[in-house]
Design goal:
By secondary structure, the protein is α/β, with parallel strands linked by helices. The protein has twelve helices and ten strands. It folds into three domains: 3-132, Rossmann fold (3-Layer(aba) Sandwich), CATH 3.40.50; 160-236; 239-375, Heat Shock Protein 90. Bound molecules: adenosine-5'-triphosphate (ATP) and magnesium ion. Magnesium ion binds at residues 288, 291-292, 338.
């Protein structure tokens, strides 16, 4: 059984790797720091070391340099396990200390095992010890410590911010839901009851003139119920929670198509579910963009596209209407807050909003939102 030593300052990362490797039949030992890994490797040289690069005190390069400097461990193959393997600097330094293989963080099991198989199966080459200047090392150590500290700070801040934005949007949605429920249970029911009483009354009166009058009132009441239901849908479409963004947007598009004769296409390529905050924000942006198409574009066709995009989701609303100058559209002007407010909401969540439009050539509005509720 081949033995692998895993060095990573992050417990979760090293333990995850250990589980995968043990399951694949390797004999795995773990080390949280370069010092402990060196001591372990010297007392019992492993067949392979997998190490992170960015670690406090002793980083991955320094660790490999010291591993190479010792005759017992000088030719132990090393694989770097890192999120930064694409950077040219990283590759150059890795090559300088005889590390030719990388595993990207994160990677799937097959890639990890294939890389390990390649390295363990290859004949060992004799490696020259690395030249090392005390000054350079010190410099690198300092920078490295700083960087590790900053990365941890940024990650914590980013996670906190995403959580807060998610909570904020959810609170907003809960409020909308409450208003919608009150409207439904109270106002709508009251007008429905009024309508029924008018209907009964109209059937009972003998005077045809009065009966007509009552029937007219009943029609008004029926129209009020319809309008209230429309308002309910605006505030909180039930489908959004039950069936998702695409279905709720389709209802809006169908309505636009029925009312304005707008031809539409809706393409939904999302493969993972949207969390509640993303769902409501995507929907609101889609609705606002569609309202603009209906109010300003004079378009005959609109295309709406939803898809996964990296660590988030993208929405595009494209029309073939008259187009406009996006700079003007995004400027805050009294009475025209749709686009600037939309952009602000999107940017608060760490997303992006882009407008592509020219007078005479249609408009494309694209939004990307990070998956703020990703675990
Ligand atoms: N799809 C579009 N096609 C043509 N013009 C557009 C389109 N979308 C926006 N515009 C132009 O950009 C302007 C700003 O849009 P914005 O949504 O910010 O405000 P509004 O629609 O005028 O008002 P509000 O959305 O606040 O009710 C619009 O008044 C319109 O001139
Ligand atoms: Mg608008």
């Amino acid at each position: 059984m081949s033995s692998i030593l895993v060095l990573d300052d992050r417990r979760a990362d090293r333990e995850l790797l250990a589980i995968l490797l043990r399951r694949a039949g390797y004999d795995v030992s773990l080390a949280p720091t370069g010092e402990t890994a060196l001591a372990a490797a010297r007392s019992d040289p492993p067949d392979l070391v997998i190490t992170d690069i960015l670690m406090p005190v002793m980083n991955g390069y320094e660790f490999v340099r010291r591993l190479r400097a010792h005759p017992e461990t000088g030719s132990v193959p090393v694989v770097f396990y890192t999120a930064n393997y694409l950077e040219r600097e990283v590759k150059r330094l890795a090559a300088a200390c005889g590390v030719s293989h990388f595993i990207a963080k994160p990677s799937d099991v097959d890639t990890i095992l294939a890389t390990i198989g390649e390295v363990i199966g290859a004949p060992r080459s004799v490696l020259r010890p690395l030249p090392g200047g005390e000054f350079d090392r010190e410099q690198l150590r300092l920078l490295n410590d700083k960087l590790v500290e900053k990365v941890a700070e940024l990650e914590a801040l980013g996670a906190e911010r995403r959580k807060l934005v998610g909570q904020l949007i959810n609170a907003h949605e809960q409020e909308r839901k409450r208003i919608a429920e009150d409207l439904h249970d109270d106002s709508v029911q009251a007008v429905v009851a009024l309508r029924m009483r008018l209907e009964t009354l109209a059937a009972r009166v003998g005077d045809p003139g009065l009966a007509r009058e009552l029937a007219g009132l009943e029609e008004h009441a029926a129209a009020a119920v319809d309008r209230l239901r429309g308002l309910l849908f605006e505030i909180q479409p039930v489908e959004l929670d039950t069936s998702g963004v695409a279905v709720a947007l389709r209802t809006s598009l169908e309505r636009a198509s029925a009312e304005d004769g707008l031809d539409f296409e809706l393409v939904d390529r999302t493969s993972r579910p949207h969390g509640q905050a993303v769902r409501s924000l995507l929907y609101r942006v889609g609705r606002e963009a569609l309202a603009n198409v209906r109010n300003h574009a004079g378009a005959s066709r609109v295309e709406v596209r939803l898809e996964d995009d990296g660590e988030g989701f993208a929405l595009e609303v494209r029309d073939d209407g008259r187009g406009f100058d996006p700079e003007q559209g995004l400027r805050v002007r009294p009475g025209h807050l749709g686009l600037p407010a939309m952009r602000e909401r999107v940017e608060i969540t760490g997303g992006r909003l882009e407008l592509e439009s020219r007078p005479g050539s249609g408009t494309a509005l694209r939004v990307w939102l990070p998956d703020v509720e990703a675990p």
